[in-house]
Structures are given as C-alpha cells and as structure tokens.
C-alpha cells in the first residue's frame, strides 16, 4: 500500500490544482496521508473515505478531471496472480467475474453528482488487457442519466497494451 495516492500526488505536483483522493480502505488512506505529506501536497488535496456510490463532495466542488485505477482483475485470477508489492486484494480484484463492477460503480457515482461536474470534464480509468470494448460498453449512456459519457481515446502503456480509457463527460441540459 506504499503507493497509495501516487496518481493524485503526480497530478498535484505537476499542476496548479486542487484534488480529492477517494478510497474505501482506511489503511490505504493512512498511507495516502503520509505520502501526501511527504510530497508536500497536503494543502492541495482532501482525502475521503468513500466509494463512488456514496461520495459526498464539499459544497460547490467542481470537477474537471476524474482519474481512477479501479480493481479489474477477476476473482478467478487471484489464484494465479503474481503479486507485486503489498496491495490488498480489494485494490486488485473486482467483486464480479467479469471485472467490470468497479466501472459500473464509477459510472453510477458520477451520474449522481452532475452539479459537481465542470462544463468539460474528463474521466480516465485504468483497464486490464483486452477490456477496452467491455468498459466502453459499461459507460454507454442510459436514458435516465443526466450526464453523457463520450469515449475520447485509449492510452497505451510502455508495452503497447491498452491501459487507460479517456471519456469526455457532458451534462445534459434541462
């Protein structure tokens, strides 16, 4: 768990912005707080113990960018997965056999906070190898939603594997 908040810290250290770190694990948040302090970013962020489904943002918060590296490995892979580091299972393995539950939770959580989204907001999610089309399908819009997720681009990692998906999020005008 020593890497907790590393994406948030990287963004904050390289920009003039404020961010929120979200995690469901109190232990991960303790490590994240230490990391934030070690990198002198404590005045640039707030850490919140929550998941996307139940997130409560401070009033008047406007989000321009949402970044997530959700657990996407299937529970079946936990038996054969060669672990690197000290990441707990909850950070690595999805709660469903398709590895998609976290993406659905993210989508549903964002749909609950349309007033907190900037006019142009982007979502970046990490994906596993071969998951691109399945994850894009998760973010297809439903008729009930007040936001639209538009697939923007895929980002490949250093091994040329599709590693992140970028979506543009727009609010539906009433």
UniProtKB/TrEMBL annotation:
One of its GO terms (molecular function) is nucleic acid binding. One of its GO terms (cellular component) is mitochondrion. SUPFAM superfamilies: S-adenosyl-L-methionine-dependent methyltransferases (SSF53335). Gene3D superfamilies: Vaccinia Virus protein VP39. It comes from the Eukaryota. GO terms for biological process: methylation. InterPro entries: DNA_methylase_N6_adenine_CS, N5-glutamine_MTase, SAM-dependent_MTases_sf. PANTHER family: HEMK METHYLTRANSFERASE (PTHR18895), MTRF1L RELEASE FACTOR GLUTAMINE METHYLTRANSFERASE (PTHR18895:SF74). This is Uncharacterized protein. It comes from Clydaea vesicula. The lineage of its organism: Eukaryota, Fungi, Fungi incertae sedis, Chytridiomycota, Chytridiomycota incertae sedis.
């Amino acid at each position: 768990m020593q890497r907790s908040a590393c994406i948030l810290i990287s963004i904050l250290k390289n920009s003039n912005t404020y961010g929120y770190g979200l995690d469901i694990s109190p232990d991960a948040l303790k490590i994240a707080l230490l990391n934030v302090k070690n990198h002198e970013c404590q005045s640039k962020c707030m850490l919140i113990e929550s998941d996307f489904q139940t997130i409560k943002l401070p009033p008047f918060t406007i989000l321009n960018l949402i970044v997530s590296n959700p657990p996407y490995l299937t529970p079946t892979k936990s038996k054969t997965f060669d672990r690197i580091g000290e990441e707990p299972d909850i950070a690595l393995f999805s709660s469903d056999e398709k590895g998609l539950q976290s993406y659905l939770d993210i989508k549903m959580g964002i749909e609950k906070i349309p007033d907190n989204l900037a006019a142009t907001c982007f979502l970046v999610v990490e994906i596993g190898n071969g998951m691109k089309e399945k994850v894009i399908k998760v973010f297809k819009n439903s008729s009930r939603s007040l936001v639209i997720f538009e697939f923007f681009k895929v980002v490949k990692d250093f091994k040329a594997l599709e590693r992140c998906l970028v979506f543009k999020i727009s609010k539906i005008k009433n």
